[in-house]
Amino acid sequence: MTDYSPADDLSLALSLAGNADLLSLDRFHSVDLVVTTKPDRTPVTDADQAVERSIRSGIEAARPGDSILGEEYGTQGTGSRQWIIDPIDGTANFLRGVPIWGTLIALAIDGIPIVGVVSAPALGRRWYAAAGHGAWGMSHGEEPKRLAVSGVSEIADASLSYNSLQGWDEEGRLDDVVALSRSVWRSRAIGDMWSYMLLAEGALDIVSEFDLKPYDMAALIPIIEEAGGRFTSVDGVPGPWNGSALATNGLLHDRVLAALNSQ
């Protein structure tokens, strides 16, 4: 079989996430966790590497013609079907014992993410979506529930997660996010994949940040879009390829884009 449906690929991604969870949880809080520093000065653990190897192995066995892009081991293959992997999003949290981290698995076809799984075993949560099949979330031991973004239609009533002021400052955009934070109801720096999943659940209305790679974003996009939201770069370009993210409930997106690009 070579003609896979989004549902087929989502089933594979969920299976890969289940295996990844076993590996990552086994290393979480481990006293012999091996931590090194990559050339970009970000940390990597032996858990990151083991999880990515496991996912790659599963993809190679089940979808041998597909290409792979992973944070730890780069690009493999050139097919139009590309699996995009962040083995542990939130490595800094993972190595400090903070439970806000997760495995991100996406499938993009011709650069467009159509399947996304975000699995956060330390939180006991998983979120997933495939194009045309809705977005779903589940807690450990419970049935999946369909996700839907909020119906907040005014920026003054919105809840914002900006994730890192340092990231905005490094981009020369600190004044933009400060101005936005002054115009919303509440602003927080929740960070990593969790803020985007809270948006898909309707608990947040705006999430935005800089200094992102495709593997930080690809799995988030189908979940947010299937939940009724919208995802672009801060400059308004769709997809995970432009180094930044702006996710909203859709109703607010154009106005937030205008606010962040007013100068």
What is the compact description of this entry?
This protein is 34% helix and 27% strand. The protein has nine helices and 15 strands. The longest helix is centred in the N-terminal third of the chain and has 22 residues, at 6-27.
Describe the model.
- The chain has 263 residues and is an alpha+beta fold.
- It folds into two domains: 6-146, Fructose-1,6-Bisphosphatase, subunit A, domain 1 (Fructose-1,6-Bisphosphatase, Chain A, domain 1, 2-Layer Sandwich); 155-260, D-Maltodextrin-Binding Protein, domain 2 (3-Layer(aba) Sandwich).
- It has nine helices and 15 strands.
- Helix 1 (6-27) runs antiparallel to helix 2 (46-62) and helix 6 (192-201) runs parallel beside helix 8 (220-226).
- Strand 8 and strand 9 form a beta hairpin.
- The mean pLDDT is 94.
- Strands 4-3-5-6-7-8-9-10 form an eight-stranded mixed beta sheet, with helices on both faces. A five-stranded mixed beta sheet has the order 12-11-13-15-14, sandwiched between helices.
- It has helices at 6-27, 46-62, 91-96, 165-170, 174-183, 192-201, 214-217, 220-226, 253-260, and strands spanning 35-37, 43-45, 67-70, 74-76, 81-89, 102-109, 112-120, 125-130, 135-139, 145-146, 159-161, 186-188, 206-210, 230-232, 244-248.
- It starts with 5 loop residues before the first helix and ends with a helix.
